[in-house]
Amino acid sequence: MAKIYYQEDCNLSLLEGKTIAIIGYGSQGHAHALNLKESGCHVIIGLYKGSKSWKRAEEQGFEVFTAAEAAKQADIIMILINDEKQAKMYKEDIEPNLEEGNMLMFAHGFNIHFGCIKPPKFVDVTMIAPKGPGHTVRSEYQVGKGVPCLVAVEQDATGKALEMALAYALGIGGARAGVLETTFRTETETDLFGEQAVLCGGVCALMQAGFEVLTEAGYDPRNAYFECIHEMKLIVDLIYQSGFSGMRYSISNTAEYGDYVTGPKLITEETKNTMRKILKEIQDGTFAKEFLLDMSDAGGQVHFQAMRKLAQEHPSEKVGEEIRKLYSWNGEDKLLDN
């Protein structure tokens, strides 16, 4: 069994006198930077010239530099920009500025595992991957808690890579909850599979399919939205708090009975075989090649943008926009810019 580390296993003082460069100031970037800063660490931000985040980072008290300048100054470099942009930025801005004993860090193993980034042998290569979005990493830290993290060491040039990574995990609050040891390969493959087969691809497709079946049968789309999409959060929150058993304890006997008899009709062996195929295509690099090609200059994101547009035009999106206006929290903490 993999080890789980907690606060008492981490030594924040290892980061004293170190300069940490956070490359990117988006969802994860701003959370890591602010949490580390409030933990007493020296943090600088690395962005591309003209980044819309530049002013925001300065307003929140950080020195901001280009990625190359930040990497040159830093002892620890955490790359928190989109997967498809990392290899080019690394090659142009970070690799030329690496020095012996630096630690190169990631929050997702994609580029290391699939060989898009190949660091020199004289640097540590580690990962701290929070198991939650950036705004949660930030909000949990602010109330004295933390989001569980994964830790992995791909390359230990200094002999202290794990200890340094754990210190970083404590700095962002992750060690308050627990830090599970893993590998770049395991994190990458399980993360991609979870996103595609369950959390995003699976759940979204299931909710929209339910919406479609009810509306095709003549039911009011607003009813369909409430029953198949809106209530998903209520169920997931119960599972998050107390597992499947706790969720089933909290719902009606009618709902629990339907859960047992209908779930296996939907998720059949054929479904699992499809999931196994998805996993294989992640493991053998098929998905990574397809994704990177589409996101490249040559691919022009043509397929990606077409899929995004099609998804945004699904009838449930229009109904959902109408329904969400009824919520008491409408307008609070919106995730999408208008």
Task: Provide key terms for this protein.
single chain, alpha/beta, globular
Question: How do the helices and strands line up, and which of them pair or pack?
Answer:
Blueprint: E1 4-5, E2 19-23, H1 27-38, E3 42-47, H2 53-59, E4 63-66, H3 67-73, E5 76-79, H4 83-94, E6 103-106, H5 110-113, E7 124-130, H6 134-142, E8 149-155, H7 161-171, H8 174-177, E9 179-181, H9 184-199, H10 201-216, H11 221-230, H12 232-250, H13 253-266, H14 269-283, H15 286-295, H16 302-312, H17 315-324
Parallel strand pairs: 2-3, 2-5, 3-4, 5-6, 6-7, 8-9
Antiparallel strand pairs: 1-9, 7-8
Explain what this protein looks like in three dimensions.
The structure is a single chain. The protein is of the alpha/beta class. The protein has helices spanning 27-38, 53-59, 67-73, 83-94, 110-113, 134-142, 161-171, 174-177, 184-199, 201-216, 221-230, 232-250, 253-266, 269-283, 286-295, 302-312, 315-324; strands spanning 4-5, 19-23, 42-47, 63-66, 76-79, 103-106, 124-130, 149-155, 179-181. α1 (27-38) runs parallel beside α6. The protein starts with a strand and ends in a 14-residue tail after the last helix. The relative contact order is 0.09. The mean pLDDT is 95.
